[in-house]
Design goal:
One of its GO terms (biological process) is peptidoglycan metabolic process. Keywords: Membrane, Transmembrane, Transmembrane helix. This is DUF218 domain-containing protein. This protein has 369 residues and is an alpha/beta fold. The protein has two domains: 180 residues, no CATH class; 161 residues, HUPs (Rossmann fold, 3-Layer(aba) Sandwich), CATH 3.40.50.620. Helix content is 60%, strand content 8%. The chain has twelve helices and six strands. A six-stranded parallel β-sheet has the order 4-3-2-1-5-6. Helix 2 packs antiparallel against helix 3 and helix 5 packs across helix 11. The radius of gyration is 25 Å and the shape is globular. The two termini are 40 Å apart. 31% of the residues are buried.
């Protein structure tokens, strides 16, 4: 009972901070870790206080811990199978190999404790294995926080107001045709523009090396022909045709929108609605801070990182996602996770070492003693 009260005293302030931070600015990945920490503390408090349902929670958590090696094995097998499918369907690029490599890495991690137990390893080798396992545990915790908040974030911004919507481009099939993945983004962009009453819809994407035209132009044409956007009615349709990265998509779109006449976002009409327009780059701009709230549309696996990037650029926009083929999701999510880690590499190196080094150091000290 007393232990449960201590957990509760920790859970309450952490939960308050988590909720306050998330409500104030949902476009922060750190919100996910605050919420995860609050949930874990709350579960411990619930169990420690012996409240109704605590027995079931203890049983579920205990069962998950006991079965965790089996669950990790199942996950590893599924990732390997998905990796093989990705290679067959998408080719052997590094990004397409991520799920396969992750699955094989999990199999190696599962085997390492067995080797430590069944063989007479020296303390330095045992310490090395522990460092790898604990570092993997840290990365796993970060991945859980990333996955959990990636799921939660779009649900937090469902009713976010938007005066404009931008659809992020992706590669064209055969250099000129909209792919199913990109078509899904366009369709969601058109739907969200209507649902949120946005005055402007922007298609953003430049021309790749192997593409016959800018992605934005192909997207706009598809939206008018097959995406449900009716020429002569609806929002002002703009194309941003110079960007090649997500950052450029957002930055160039914000510059374009900042150059529109005052009131244009709320009352489209400078050009006939449903017409494709690409405002000149020479328009005087006030900067992203002068923009009305907007919405970024990408694929579901990319939503959180797009929202985080919009915040970093000072663009007042939330993000929503279009569905992605299931077989494509594991590698795509892992790619986004790696990109998130790469944004603050030294932070994760330091935290990972703080988690991974103490126990191996103790093993070495006791082994030498």
């Amino acid at each position: 009972m007393v232990e449960g009260l201590w957990w509760l005293l920790l859970a309450l302030p952490v939960g308050w901070v988590a909720v306050r931070r998330t409500r104030a600015e949902p476009r922060r990945l750190s919100n996910g870790f605050w919420l995860l920490a609050a949930a874990l503390l709350a579960l411990n408090a619930l169990v420690g206080l012996g409240l109704p349902g605590s027995g079931v929670i203890s049983l579920v958590v205990g069962g998950a811990l006991v079965l965790s090696p089996l669950l990790v094995l199942v996950l590893a097998v599924l990732l390997v199978a998905n990796g093989v499918q990705m290679v067959r369907k998408e080719g052997r690029s590094l990004g397409n190999l991520l799920s396969l490599m992750a699955g094989l890495a999990l199999l190696v991690l599962l085997a390492s404790p067995v080797l430590v137990i069944t063989t007479d390893m020296s303390p330095p080798v045992v310490a090395g294995v522990l460092i790898v396992l604990l570092a993997a545990a840290y990365l796993g915790f970060v991945l859980v926080g990333f996955l959990g908040y990636s799921w939660l974030y779009p649900r937090l911004v469902r009713r976010h107001p938007a005066a404009w919507v931008v659809v992020l481009g992706s590669g064209l099939s055969g250099g000129e045709r909209v792919t199913p993945l990109l078509a899904g983004r366009i369709r969601v962009g058109v739907q969200q523009t209507a649902a949120r009453g946005a005055g402007v819809l922007v298609m953003s994407g430049g021309r790749g090396r192997d593409e016959a035209l800018p992605e934005a132009e192909a997207m706009a044409a598809w939206a008018l022909a097959e995406g449900g956007l009716v020429r002569g009615s609806g929002p002002l349709l703009l194309t941003e045709t110079t960007s090649t990265t997500t950052e450029e998509n957002l930055r160039h779109t914000a510059e374009m929108l900042s150059g529109l006449p005052a009131g244009e976002l709320a009352h489209p009409g400078a050009a006939p609605t449903g017409t494709v327009v690409n405002p000149p780059a020479s328009v005087e701009r006030d900067g992203p801070s002068s923009l009305a709230p907007g919405l970024v549309v990408s694929s579901d696996y990319h939503v959180l990182r797009a929202a985080i990037l919009a915040r970093q650029l000072g663009i007042p926009a939330q993000a929503v996602g279009a569905p992605t083929a299931r077989y494509f999701l594991p590698s795509a999510v892992l790619r986004e996770y790696v990109a998130v880690l790469a944004e603050r590499p030294w932070l994760h190196v330091v935290l990972g070492l703080l988690v991974a080094l103490p126990l191996p150091a103790l093993v070495l000290l006791t082994g030498q003693g």
